[in-house]
Design brief:
Elements (H helix, E strand, L loop, with lengths): L2 H10 L4 H31 L5 H22 L2 H27 L1
Helix pairs in contact: 2-3, 3-4
Length: 104
């Protein structure tokens, strides 16, 4: 979508541009906090020799969904590539996590 289309959609939904900007910025800070918390918990789990693949899967898949949304909104191939990469890493992490969980 182009900038004008986003503006028309926002005006049709009667959203204030400031509100949209604040929501976008809050999403960025939510993502940063998610990454920071996941890194902290993963470091603790790794220091205790516990698997951290569950957190890796959660992080990759949640950020991947955001990249997929950006791809559909902007139609830029880099976002699709990031989604495929993150989704693949997330699925591999889930498989290894479940393998460790059930087969030790």
């Amino acid at each position: 979508m182009e900038k004008d289309n986003f503006l028309k959609i926002a005006q049709k939904e009667k959203n204030d541009e400031r509100e949209i900007f604040i929501n976008d910025k809050s999403s960025v800070w939510i993502s940063r906090a998610l990454i920071g918390i996941a890194a902290f918990i993963s470091a603790i789990k790794e220091s205790q020799n516990l698997p951290f693949l569950d957190i890796l899967a959660m992080l990759c898949l949640s950020i991947g969904v955001g990249e997929l949304y950006k791809y559909f909104a902007r139609k830029e191939i880099k976002y699709l590539f990031l989604f495929i990469l993150l989704f693949t890493v997330g699925l591999v992490a889930i498989v290894f996590f479940l393998k460790d969980l059930y087969y030790g």
